[in-house]
Amino acid sequence: MTDEERARRLARVEEIRAGGGDPYPVRYDRDRDAASLHAEFGALEPGTETDVEVSVAGRLVLRRDQGRLVFGTLRDGSGTIQLFASEREMGPGPLDAFRALDLGDWVGARGTVMTTRKGELSVKVAEATLLAKALLPLPDKWHGLADVDTRFRRRYVDLVVNEDARRVARLRSDALDALRRLLHDRGFVEVETPVLHHQAGGAAARPFVTHHNALDLDLVLRIALELHLKRLIVGGMERVFEIGRVFRNEGLSTRHNPEFTMLEAYQAFADYTDMMTLTEEVVSGVAHATLGRTTVEVDGVTVDLAPPWERASMLDLIRRHADLDVHPARPVAELHRAAVAAGVEPDPSWGPGKVVTEIYEKAVEPQLVGPVFVTDHPLEVSPLARVHRDDPALVERFEAVVLGRELANAFSELNDPVDQRRRLEEQARLRAAGDDEAHGVDEDFLRALEYGMPPCGGLGIGVDRLVMLLAGVSSIREVILFPTLRPEASVED
Question: pTM here?
Answer without folding.
Answer: 0.90
